[in-house]
Amino acid sequence: MTSAIDIINEKNSHLEKFYRLNEAELERFTAGDFAGLDEFYKSREGILDIVRKLDEMLERTSAEVNPSSISEQSKKEVLNALDFKNQLVTRILEQDLRILSVLESAKSEIIKELTQVRSARKAIGAYHSGRNKSRLNEKA
User: Fold this and answer.
1) What is the largest CA-CA distance in the chain?
2) CA 68 from chain center: how many Å?
3) pTM for this predicted structure
4) What phi, psi does 65 have (nearest 5°)?
């Protein structure tokens, strides 16, 4: 059972790394720095791949354990580790919602700016085309 507890603790360690990565990027995103967005997503995927592999290892290890042979101490350790994992996952989900909100706000701002630029170009284009016609009329 010790190896299962070790795997759960290793998984929790990677979830903590994931949380810290999110926290650091959230600060950058909030400051308007989106330069590392692609690298951020790659790093997250790398950590999630490791977590998936640990989950597979945990399933194999758990399948080999006879439930009646697990000591009360081991059960407590597993429950504590799983409780900690659940807390981490909840905090990560809250972070993800904040990250999505910041990214959505930035996206909306970019769309708003693009719309303003298009309107300005259209107005300038209309102004220029109107000015050329009046010059032609004056020459005629």
Assistant:
1) 103
2) 40
3) 0.76
4) -95, 135
Residue 80 token pair: 């504590």
Would the pLDDT of 80 be above 90? yes
Q: How many CB atoms lie within 10 A of CB 56?
A: 11
Could you read off the pLDDT of 17-54 as tens digits, one per residue? 999 999 999 999 999 999 999 999 999 999 999 999 99
Q: What is the pLDDT of residue 91?
A: 97
User: Which positions ≥6 away from 89 have C-beta within 8 Å?
Assistant: 15
CA nearest to 21, candidates 112, 104, 105, 99 = 99
- DSSP letter at 64 equals T
> Torsions phi, psi of 133, nearest 5?
-65, -40
Burial class (CB in 10 A: 0-12, 13-18, 19+), 18: buried
